[in-house]
Amino acid sequence: MRTNVYESAVMINAALDDDQIEGVISRIKETITNNGGEIRDMENWGRKRLAYVVKKSKVGYYVIFRFNAPSSVVSKLERFYLLDEHVLRFLTITLDSDAIEHIEKNKSTSLVEIVPDVKPDIPIIDEVEDNAKDIVK
Q: What is the pTM of this model?
């Protein structure tokens, strides 16, 4: 059976204890692996304040899963999300080869390499104040 690469972003109720959140995450992992999927990567973003209230929650706990799986796994996984009362929102997408390449490239690149050392062309503040004094005189 042909497998695709998927990315599933899940927002879990952040009002839960850390142990309960880890339990939800482990059940998601089990759902993926028990149905023939293989987890490639997992990003644990943690608690984030929401822009608006979702199911009476102002804070969500974000986790992103990237996994290889047959297409039948997605329907079973989303069914699990719908039935679990601790999952507030979710989104599962298929990643194409360009997206996978971009993710791998960004994972290997550090922030220091992305932002070069730039020296500003703006004069130092003391020089600006001296020039202002000369103009006033």
A: 0.72
